[in-house]
Amino acid sequence: MELASVRAVVTGGASGLGRATAARLAGAGARIAILDRPASPGADVAKSLGDAAVFTPADVSSADEVAAALDTARGRLGAINVLVNCAGIGTAMKTLGKSGPAKLEEFTRVINVNLIGTFNCIRLAATHMAQNAPSRDGERGVVINTASVAAFDGQIGQAAYSASKGGIVGMTLPVARDLAELGVRVVTIAPGIFETPLLGTLPEPVRASLAKQVPFPQRLGQPDEYAALACHIITNVMLNGETIRLDGAIRMAPR
Ligand SMILES: NC(=O)c1ccc[n+]([C@@H]2O[C@H](COP(=O)([O-])OP(=O)(O)OC[C@H]3O[C@@H](n4cnc5c(N)ncnc54)[C@H](O)[C@@H]3O)[C@@H](O)[C@H]2O)c1
């Protein structure tokens, strides 16, 4: 798919990796709906992208809110042919900590947003993509998910986060198979450590120590490097049903 013809919904588009992806797509002539929490700066981010972007507030884990946001997005953009799932949250909790067993509600909260929220957006976006006219390749849409290297080498305290991201990796192939007959591709990116507002809150020594763990290049990833891969995935019709690590060869240590 050519970037100029992209009509994308970017979840988590108000910050970090999603924001960088929305900006890069807008720069390539695409139009974007930023789907993020109502309390996020999504409206300001959309405004900063001029006519290219609109803000469609929703919680990714809500069936009704996402359905309404996608209807609005389709109305404003004319179609939806790309979904980039970047909305996500983290948590740190040991399975059995000093104050007792991990809180089940916390585990559920992370699975709800990261895993169920991702699937919720895919299933609802697919109903819109199914109505697109196919390209010469028979393509009607592209879905990009965001897992994490924690899906493979989760650290101490990351049971919930790793399980949510491992679930995204696990569903990549079956969802690609489900949507193949529509000409909709599904690819997941598993980022290493990226310099987003989330990480920006860490003290410099901690950031430097994280960067040192990356074999090469020995630094944190830039959000635009994620955005560049997302754009490549959109344009390369042979990429499908796969998870791509984007991590400078880091393999996370237990802590
Ligand atoms: N930054 C990293 O190093 C890194 C590494 C691996 C994976 N990831 C993943 O990349 C994605 C983006 O992370 P980021 O670093 O850009 O984080 P971020 O906090 O900068 O951005 C995440 C965005 O998701 C939104 N969001 C959270 N919960 C939501 C909900 N329920 N409904 C709608 N929107 C919601 C937030 O409002 C925010 O705008 C996440 O899924 C994260 O797990 C990040």
What would you note in describing this structure?
The protein has 255 residues and is an alpha/beta fold. The chain has one domain: 3-Layer(aba) Sandwich (Rossmann fold), CATH 3.40.50. Helix content is 42%, strand content 16%. Helix 5 links the parallel strand 7 and strand 8 (184-191). The termini are far apart. It binds nicotinamide-adenine-dinucleotide.
Order of H and E elements: EHEHEHEEEHEHEHHHE
**CATH 4th-level superfamily:** NAD(P)-binding Rossmann-like Domain
What proportion of the residues is helical, as a percent range? Answer: 40-55%
Structural class: alpha/beta
Outline type:
globular
What ranges have pLDDT less than 50 throughout 5 or more consecutive residues? none
Number of E strands: 9
Strand order of the largest sheet: 3-2-1-4-7-8-9
The level 1 CATH classification is Alpha Beta
Summed up, the helix count is 8
Give a list of the ligands. nicotinamide-adenine-dinucleotide
The CATH topology comes to Rossmann fold
Give the overall pLDDT as a whole number: 97
